[in-house]
Design goal:
With 555 residues, the chain is an alpha/beta fold. Helix content is 27%, strand content 15%. It is built from 17 helices and 20 strands. The strands form five sheets. It has an eight-stranded parallel sheet. It has a five-stranded antiparallel sheet with strand order 14-15-16-20-18. The chain has a three-stranded antiparallel sheet with strand order 6-8-7, with no helix packed on it. Helix 7 packs parallel to helix 8 and helix 14 runs parallel beside helix 17. The radius of gyration is 24 Å and the shape is globular. It binds 1-deoxynojirimycin. The site of 1-deoxynojirimycin has 9 residues, from loops.
Length: 555
Amino acid sequence: MTKLTEQATEQSTGSQPWWRGAAIFQVYPRSFMDGDGDGTGDVAGIRSRLPYLVELGVDALWISPWYVSPLADGGYDIADYRDIDPAFGTLAEAEALIAEGHELGLRTIVDLVPNHCSDQHPWFRAALAAAPGSPERALFHFRPGRGPGGDLPPNDWQAHFGGSAWQRTADAEGRPGEWYLHMFAPEQPDWNWDNPAVRAEFESILRFWLDRGVDGFRIDVTDHLVKEQGLPDSAGHHGRPDPWRDQEGVHEIYRSWRAIIDSYPGERVFVAELWENNPARFARYLRPDELQTAFNFPLLKSAWDAAELRDVIDDTLSSHALVGAPPTWVLSNHDTTRHVTRYGRADTTYDFDRAGRFGRPVDLDLGTRRARAAALLTFALPGGVYVYQGDELGLWEVEDIPDELRQDPTWVRSGHVDRGRDGCRVPLPWSGTERPFGFSAGDGDAPPWLDVQPAAWKDRTAAAESGAPGSHLELYRTGLRLRRAEPGLGDGPMEWQPSAPDVLDFTRPGGFRCMVNLGATPVALPGQSELLLASGPLDGGLLPTDTAVWLRRTE
Ligand code: NOJ
């Protein structure tokens, strides 16, 4: 493994920045590995698994929020942006993790949540205690209500987790007062980005983590920070953008942030969380003086369908080419149904009908086969690739969580309609044949915070899969190792080859070729090719349904 200092020297001799073709592993800290036995994943647990990530062959880890948080939204409700939650460890441990990662050749990207904080953040506590019109309240969006007695919310915006996006305040005597805006849960008040003090605070937070050696930031709901002046109702609001997102002013913020990270040595990076369907609007965030990369969610949302995937790939390549940014490929994350489950359903489209998606039949063998093929597809496409913890083990969504154990605020906020995202956040199985499958180490013996691992995960532990020929983990390890070694992979061009409509077939420089059969019948493999890797068994010279191969031209 090359240390980052050596890599930096190689890079300065002319190769592309690392992030243009990186493989990045998402850690959801609560559920990755518990180092002290209290049932909650933590920084000590992540540190203990760095060798596992090195062996997996990723270049960096993105760590979902680990800051001080009441965990009203799994850590995306931050009470102190400059410290680690005691349940996860200490700032000193986080610094040690960043340094150890660098020693091992692993970069660290931290999660920045600039749209909202926690209602326990001291600035929001002060705002609640202060009078309407005060400078404390001007850091957030406080407004009087509408209607008699101000009993109605200031506008008609809906929170993403359900219900109005406004919460009414009450004074110490319980008398109702102003309302405040929260685009997510009421425990997550939105910052007022028109206020220079908010801008200054986040610039300082960026520097705080850059000074501790982080290699980049994932930006939560990138397009939400600036709201349309006057906070107009969305009913009757014509055209784009919605009044709560994608406002012009947000780009100025990112230009200023870019100047800050570029003033630091090394190649630090932003990755935008951007659920934007319009390719031209999407690309605006990736202009050369703004953010370098963004998650590519259209791939995650598409069905297991060759025509749809081909369109998504083409649209992705062309939208990114507009601004010279490298695409990224994402199959799952902590907000979405795990793709083994999605691809195991008759209708494989990821949809936002979260109520409707539960309880639909799943064929896990089918989903697993397709997930293996999808991994080789995404690893072979131009740009960067993300692996969500447990993807590499072939984990599926846990859909039978008892209602009383559900933690995701969407469950309550949707009036118990949307069962939420807990099913993709179940603590990882590491070893052994009994639950909790080695999730916890250390002296404590508390059960996992979400104690619902399926018994069948005994065959999906990292230990069981490690070294097992044909396992999901070994496919990921081999695929990522080859991807790193293959000069034509990562950033760079690709070329579609003529193929049957249900087959994705493309080449990359150096004679590399990827074929994925999404059709109902096997297709012939080309001659004069060496087989580098297959996602499943081949049928002589035929590529079976739901299987991918990597080949190299031999003539
Ligand atoms: C996106 C995050 O990925 C999600 O987990 C969170 O609930 C919302 N943003 C609000 O922060």
